[in-house]
Protein backbone atom coordinates (compact mmCIF):
# COMPACT_ATOMS: atom_id res chain seq x y z
CA UNK A 1 0.00 0.00 0.00
CA UNK A 2 1.25 3.45 -0.89
CA UNK A 3 1.25 6.06 1.86
CA UNK A 4 -1.08 8.98 1.28
CA UNK A 5 1.36 11.23 3.15
CA UNK A 6 3.99 12.54 0.87
CA UNK A 7 7.05 13.89 2.58
CA UNK A 8 8.12 17.30 1.35
CA UNK A 9 11.77 17.86 0.90
CA UNK A 10 13.16 21.22 1.81
CA UNK A 11 15.60 23.03 -0.34
CA UNK A 12 19.16 23.56 0.92
CA UNK A 13 18.44 27.32 1.03
CA UNK A 14 15.70 26.78 3.60
CA UNK A 15 18.15 25.03 5.95
CA UNK A 16 20.89 27.61 5.34
CA UNK A 17 18.48 30.46 6.20
CA UNK A 18 17.35 28.67 9.36
CA UNK A 19 20.97 28.03 10.38
CA UNK A 20 21.88 31.68 9.74
CA UNK A 21 19.00 32.97 11.90
CA UNK A 22 19.89 30.61 14.77
CA UNK A 23 23.59 31.56 14.50
CA UNK A 24 22.88 35.30 14.61
CA UNK A 25 20.59 34.83 17.61
CA UNK A 26 23.26 32.78 19.44
CA UNK A 27 25.91 35.44 18.77
CA UNK A 28 23.65 38.24 20.01
CA UNK A 29 22.79 36.39 23.20
CA UNK A 30 26.41 35.50 23.96
CA UNK A 31 27.63 39.09 23.40
CA UNK A 32 24.99 40.81 25.53
CA UNK A 33 26.24 42.19 28.84
CA UNK A 34 25.33 39.94 31.70
CA UNK A 35 23.59 41.64 34.61
CA UNK A 36 25.87 41.75 37.62
CA UNK A 37 27.01 44.25 40.18
CA UNK A 38 30.48 44.17 38.63
CA UNK A 39 29.62 45.71 35.31
CA UNK A 40 27.22 48.45 36.47
CA UNK A 41 28.26 51.93 35.39
CA UNK A 42 29.03 54.44 38.18
CA UNK A 43 25.80 56.38 37.57
CA UNK A 44 23.77 53.16 37.84
CA UNK A 45 25.46 52.34 41.16
CA UNK A 46 24.48 55.78 42.51
CA UNK A 47 20.89 55.41 41.27
CA UNK A 48 20.59 51.92 42.77
CA UNK A 49 21.96 53.18 46.08
CA UNK A 50 19.51 56.10 46.18
CA UNK A 51 16.62 53.74 45.43
CA UNK A 52 17.73 51.55 48.33
CA UNK A 53 18.18 54.57 50.59
CA UNK A 54 14.71 55.89 49.77
CA UNK A 55 13.23 52.59 50.94
CA UNK A 56 15.36 52.35 54.10
CA UNK A 57 15.88 55.94 55.25
CA UNK A 58 13.44 55.71 58.15
CA UNK A 59 15.15 52.84 59.93
CA UNK A 60 18.83 53.75 59.59
CA UNK A 61 19.72 56.47 62.05
CA UNK A 62 17.71 55.56 65.15
CA UNK A 63 19.66 55.97 68.39
CA UNK A 64 23.00 57.15 66.96
CA UNK A 65 23.18 59.50 69.94
CA UNK A 66 22.71 58.42 73.54
CA UNK A 67 20.59 60.63 75.82
CA UNK A 68 18.98 62.54 72.97
CA UNK A 69 16.50 64.35 75.18
CA UNK A 70 12.84 64.68 74.44
CA UNK A 71 10.03 64.77 76.99
CA UNK A 72 11.71 62.50 79.52
CA UNK A 73 15.12 64.19 79.55
CA UNK A 74 17.49 63.28 82.35
CA UNK A 75 19.37 66.52 83.02
CA UNK A 76 22.25 64.61 84.61
CA UNK A 77 23.12 62.79 81.37
CA UNK A 78 24.79 64.37 78.38
CA UNK A 79 24.94 63.53 74.70
CA UNK A 80 27.28 60.72 73.68
CA UNK A 81 27.76 58.73 70.50
CA UNK A 82 26.12 55.32 70.60
CA UNK A 83 28.93 53.38 68.93
CA UNK A 84 27.01 50.11 68.70
CA UNK A 85 24.29 51.97 66.76
CA UNK A 86 26.80 53.79 64.52
CA UNK A 87 28.48 50.47 63.68
CA UNK A 88 25.11 48.93 62.85
CA UNK A 89 24.35 51.96 60.63
CA UNK A 90 27.71 51.73 58.83
CA UNK A 91 27.47 47.96 58.38
CA UNK A 92 23.99 48.33 56.92
CA UNK A 93 25.30 50.87 54.39
CA UNK A 94 28.25 48.61 53.56
CA UNK A 95 25.95 45.62 53.07
CA UNK A 96 24.33 47.33 50.08
CA UNK A 97 27.47 46.66 48.03
CA UNK A 98 27.28 50.28 46.83
CA UNK A 99 29.36 51.88 49.61
CA UNK A 100 33.14 51.44 49.95
CA UNK A 101 35.25 50.74 53.03
CA UNK A 102 36.82 54.16 52.42
CA UNK A 103 33.41 55.82 52.93
CA UNK A 104 32.80 53.75 56.08
CA UNK A 105 36.22 54.65 57.53
CA UNK A 106 35.54 58.38 57.01
CA UNK A 107 32.30 58.10 58.97
CA UNK A 108 33.90 56.06 61.75
CA UNK A 109 36.36 58.92 62.20
CA UNK A 110 33.46 61.41 62.07
CA UNK A 111 31.65 59.59 64.90
CA UNK A 112 34.84 59.41 67.00
CA UNK A 113 35.40 63.15 66.53
CA UNK A 114 31.74 63.86 67.38
CA UNK A 115 32.08 61.89 70.59
CA UNK A 116 35.22 63.84 71.52
CA UNK A 117 33.24 67.03 70.93
CA UNK A 118 30.41 65.79 73.18
CA UNK A 119 32.92 65.06 75.97
CA UNK A 120 34.69 68.41 75.54
CA UNK A 121 31.37 70.31 75.44
CA UNK A 122 28.83 68.41 77.57
CA UNK A 123 25.28 69.23 76.58
CA UNK A 124 21.80 67.78 76.61
CA UNK A 125 19.92 70.71 75.11
CA UNK A 126 18.91 71.32 71.52
CA UNK A 127 19.83 69.12 68.61
CA UNK A 128 23.04 67.17 69.21
CA UNK A 129 26.00 68.77 67.42
CA UNK A 130 27.01 66.93 64.25
CA UNK A 131 23.81 64.84 64.22
CA UNK A 132 21.22 67.40 63.13
CA UNK A 133 21.23 66.46 59.44
CA UNK A 134 20.96 63.47 57.11
CA UNK A 135 24.46 62.12 56.42
CA UNK A 136 23.61 60.74 52.98
CA UNK A 137 21.64 63.79 51.80
CA UNK A 138 24.15 66.19 53.39
CA UNK A 139 21.41 68.32 54.92
CA UNK A 140 17.98 68.47 56.47
CA UNK A 141 15.94 68.75 53.27
CA UNK A 142 14.85 65.89 51.04
CA UNK A 143 16.16 66.75 47.57
CA UNK A 144 13.46 64.63 45.91
CA UNK A 145 14.04 60.95 46.62
CA UNK A 146 10.49 60.26 45.44
CA UNK A 147 11.39 61.67 42.02
CA UNK A 148 14.42 59.57 41.13
CA UNK A 149 12.85 58.87 37.73
CA UNK A 150 13.13 62.63 37.00
CA UNK A 151 16.61 62.98 38.51
CA UNK A 152 19.59 63.52 36.21
CA UNK A 153 22.73 61.39 36.64
CA UNK A 154 25.78 62.66 34.77
CA UNK A 155 29.23 61.10 34.79
CA UNK A 156 31.61 64.08 35.05
CA UNK A 157 34.86 62.17 35.11
CA UNK A 158 35.85 58.55 34.91
CA UNK A 159 38.97 56.50 34.48
CA UNK A 160 39.77 52.88 35.19
CA UNK A 161 39.32 53.11 38.96
CA UNK A 162 37.74 56.48 39.86
CA UNK A 163 34.59 58.29 38.79
CA UNK A 164 32.58 61.36 39.71
CA UNK A 165 28.81 61.39 39.17
CA UNK A 166 26.79 64.60 39.36
CA UNK A 167 23.24 64.02 40.58
CA UNK A 168 20.72 66.81 39.90
CA UNK A 169 17.31 66.40 41.52
CA UNK A 170 14.17 68.07 40.12
CA UNK A 171 14.39 70.44 43.12
CA UNK A 172 17.69 71.69 41.58
CA UNK A 173 19.63 70.27 44.54
CA UNK A 174 22.92 68.78 43.32
CA UNK A 175 25.37 66.26 44.73
CA UNK A 176 28.70 64.88 43.61
CA UNK A 177 29.24 61.19 44.23
CA UNK A 178 32.87 60.10 44.21
CA UNK A 179 33.30 56.43 43.37
CA UNK A 180 36.20 54.02 43.35
CA UNK A 181 36.49 50.65 41.69
CA UNK A 182 37.22 47.75 44.02
CA UNK A 183 37.57 44.17 42.76
CA UNK A 184 35.94 45.24 39.49
CA UNK A 185 32.91 46.89 41.15
CA UNK A 186 32.11 50.57 41.58
CA UNK A 187 31.40 51.78 45.13
CA UNK A 188 30.71 55.20 46.62
CA UNK A 189 33.72 56.74 48.42
CA UNK A 190 32.21 60.10 49.28
CA UNK A 191 29.10 62.29 48.80
CA UNK A 192 29.22 66.05 48.59
CA UNK A 193 26.41 68.59 48.30
CA UNK A 194 27.04 71.09 45.50
CA UNK A 195 26.13 74.72 46.04
CA UNK A 196 23.89 76.16 43.31
Describe what you observe in this structure.
- The protein is α+β, with helices and mostly antiparallel strands.
- It has one domain (40-194): Nuclear Transport Factor 2, Chain: A.
- The chain is 34% helix and 19% strand.
- It is built from 4 helices and 6 strands.
- The protein has helices at 12-31, 42-56, 83-94, 101-120; strands at residues 65-66, 80-81, 152-158, 162-168, 174-182, 185-194.
- It has a 4-stranded antiparallel β-sheet. The protein has a two-stranded antiparallel sheet with strand order 1-2.
- A hairpin with a 3-residue loop joins strand 3 (152-158) and strand 4.
- The longest helix is centred in the first third of the chain and has 20 residues, at 12-31.
- The relative contact order is 0.14.
- Residues 1-8 and 13-38 have low confidence and may be disordered.
Q: How would the global form be characterised?
A: globular
CATH class: Alpha Beta
**Proportion in helices:** 25-40%
Mean pLDDT: 82
Q: Give helix and strand order, one letter per element, not per position.
A: HHEEHHEEEE
* Secondary-structure content class: alpha+beta
**Main sheet attributes: strand count, strand direction, barrel closure:** 4 strands, antiparallel
Number of continuous helical runs: 4
Q: Oligomeric state of the chains?
A: single chain
CATH fold field value: Nuclear Transport Factor 2, Chain: A
Q: Hey, roughly how much beta strand do the residues contain?
A: 15-25%
Number of domains: 1
| Spans of at least 5 consecutive residues with low confidence | 1-8, 13-38
Q: Strands of the largest sheet, in order across it?
A: 3-4-5-6
Rg over CA atoms: 27 Å
